[in-house]
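Technical note accompanying the year-one report. For the benefit of new consortium partners, we illustrate the data format agreed upon in the data management plan: each record pairs a sequence with a structure-token string. No post-processing was applied to the example shown here.
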Amino acid sequence: MEFNKLIELNRLAKEGVVQYSSYRKLYFELLQDKGKHFVGIVGPRGVGKTITLRQLTINIPRSFYISMESFDGSMFNILKELKEKFKIETFMLDEVHSYSDFDKEIQSVYELLNVKIFFTSSTALSMAKYRNDMSRRVLLKHLHPFSFREYLTFKGKSDIPHLTFDDFINKEIAEPILPLGEYFYEYIRGGLMPFALHEPDVLFLLDNVLNSVIYKDIPRVNKNITMGDLSIITKLVKFIGLSSVDGINYSSIARNLSITKYKAEQYISLLEQAFITQIILPEGSNILKEPKILLSLPYRLLYQKFDLALGGLREDFFVQSCKILGKNISYLKSTVGTKTPDYMFSDTNIVLEIGGKGRSQFKGIKFSKKIILSDSYEYNTHAKKPLFTFCLVEK
């Protein structure tokens, strides 16, 4: 790859990011990162990894930005030459899953070049090997979509009251928080994606993201995937998007798409690693119970109108919020003819019902804490709370 082209692309990347005066929380954490280890930033397409990387390039001396999607040549040789010729000390490598030999060459860079590397990937699948092969050399960081709190901050709401997880579970929600619920539907319609701050047609861009994931990212990380597989994966996402959330698992997907259960598991795993689907394991160790399959927000809206999708969006939101907060959950599977609350916080005695108005789901259930999360602002007691407040909880 020509050096002049690399230098020009680096210059344009720095110039193009100057207009972004706001920073994700992870940016400040990365800016303070010290040590010889490399840092991998993993997150969905459109979540702000590229902008964060370019912002770091501006503010870290002797740094250089390279997009691996348009990269041509030997990464090791080019980084070595840039270091020697231009005294570069830190490289920002964007979308490294696009470069087929990255996992091989990154080890050589670490061992032979005295440089710091920050890199990004839009698929966790390509990052899994670094947890094993380079566990002491690469530190992985996740960049999630906006939490509801972060979204409100970017919208100019800087005076949001503090809310701890313990307060959320054990106390009524503070009155000043309740009016913020007016932004909740805007958030789950697509506002959680940073590009929604600047682009009015969120769903059009989201559809482009989904197609890029299926037809570019997945084939790059799994060389055995065929065009026939990709067509089925597209239908699979649509099937989940058009279905109610109950009963979506490997067996129902296999049955409705006329594929094997093994294939359904393989496809769902790829989609989860690309941040399109969400897998929730059942409570307990009964291996006969299959995982529950949801979508990440707001992909369901590509297939249903908002009013029809709302029930699914609520659960997508809750599960995704748990991931952002680092809270492990499991789902509770009911027996035929009975009602059971939706989820349980792992390693606790706390169960939750999403969107319910009554307490019939809790009948006969013996848990220390039973909470209903509803859209309605009327519910604000120890046992009934507005759903949107959950993602205002601070880590």
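Partners are asked to follow this layout when depositing records. The longest strand covers residues 116-121.
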